[in-house]
Structure to design on (377 residues):
């Protein structure tokens, strides 16, 4: 767990500002809302359009918000 | 298959570049209509391939360069991760679940690449290097039922 | 100046790659202790340089490649954006505020690069291409008073 914390703190390539955290939360909400509305997982373009931000900003916020993509990689690197 | 966009990059063989490569490829891939889940999967596959080039291919020689290219077509994204490092003598064995030459590692990198990408090909020569070519299809707005299970 | 990390990339001359380059360079630069504000400034400078290569350097030839390299040292990040396009006859004039060869544009790209980066150098030959080299210092823990005004 200490290692995972260290990962979240040090190995995140995206510096997390408060607004990026808010965007990440809005992405999470939009994802659920769109899934309900269209009956499938939304695409990155659909989420970007819903929030009025660029696709690349969706990616940045997802990276900033997420747990390690591969906990295994973190623990064994 | 008409190429929509192409990216080539190379970066030093440093652990910090695993996270960099993951974000860069996801940002590039976001030009296609991947789902957020697809992008997460792509990121894991890229992380594993780049980590292998750095850890196994080059060992600890940070001045060596890892090459990565990404090609977008209407069908999806093709990604190549290449190193000029140690190489793999027996690729088939290396790709087996839980196989690792390092007792500290879990040997699941290739398993993740294969489960998260639609195609994975590994070309390697001992002493010369390794190239991993992976393809992920874009299903865009396809209904859930028609998306292949990964 | 010891190099901490190096990245080289090239991508097609397409408008979509302006946003890609901005995000990729910011992710790479985050390995240094830049402030969030510094990263935003860096993103603007990169966007302007890459947009110039695409719009002015290559006009509309999407198969041409824009080259971008980024080098991290303890002092900061050096970025080079290069095209093999049209080139600039009078660099000094091109860099003047509000100068643009396109009446639809504002002519502020170089002004932004110069205000957001600590050093900007433009090398160009008509018919051969343009290279913009920019440096941004990392102020890490330095007190605000010692930071240069931008
Ligand atoms: N780029 C590479 N260069 C040399 N050897 C590699 C490379 N990629 C993978 N290998 C070999 O394949 C094995 C399995 O790789 P992987 O499935 O990612 O597991 P792990 O990285 O946990 O060992 C590694 O232990 C290593 O011996
Ligand atoms: N890479 C380039 N290749 C050719 N010409 C360029 C390039 N970059 C800038 N220029 C020239 O310099 C001028 C000023 O650039 P800039 O300050 O970014 O303003 P703008 O892009 O709004 O015209 C451009 O109008 C163009 O004539
Ligand atoms: Mg591995
Ligand atoms: Mg401009």
């Amino acid at each position: 767990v200490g290692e995972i914390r260290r990962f979240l703190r040090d190995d995140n390539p995206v510096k997390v500002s408060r607004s990026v955290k808010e965007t990440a939360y809005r992405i999470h909400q939009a994802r659920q809302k769109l899934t309900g509305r269209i009956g499938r997982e939304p695409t990155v373009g659909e989420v970007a359009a819903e929030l009025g931000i660029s696709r690349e900003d969706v990616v940045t916020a997802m990276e900033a918000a997420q747990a390690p993509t591969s906990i295994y990689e973190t623990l064994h690197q | 298959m008409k190429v929509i966009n192409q990216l080539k990059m190379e970066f030093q063989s440093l652990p910090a570049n695993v996270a960099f490569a993951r974000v860069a490829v996801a940002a590039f891939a976001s030009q296609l209509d991947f789902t957020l889940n697809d992008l997460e999967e792509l990121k894991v596959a890229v992380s594993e391939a780049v980590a292998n080039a750095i850890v196994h291919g080059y060992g600890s020689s940070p001045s060596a360069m890892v090459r990565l290219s990404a090609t977008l077509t209407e069908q999806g994204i093709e990604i190549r991760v290449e190193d000029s490092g140690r190489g793999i003598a027996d690729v088939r064995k290396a790709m087996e679940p839980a196989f690792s030459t390092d007792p500290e590692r879990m040997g699941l990198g290739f398993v993740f690449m294969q489960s998260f990408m639609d195609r994975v090909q590994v070309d390697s020569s001992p002493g010369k290097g390794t190239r991993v070519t992976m393809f992920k299809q874009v299903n865009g707005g396809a209904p859930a039922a028609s998306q292949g299970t990964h």
In short: Helices of chain C lie at 16-29, 36-57, 91-94, 109-116. DSSP finds four helices and five strands in chain C. The mean pLDDT of chain C is 93.
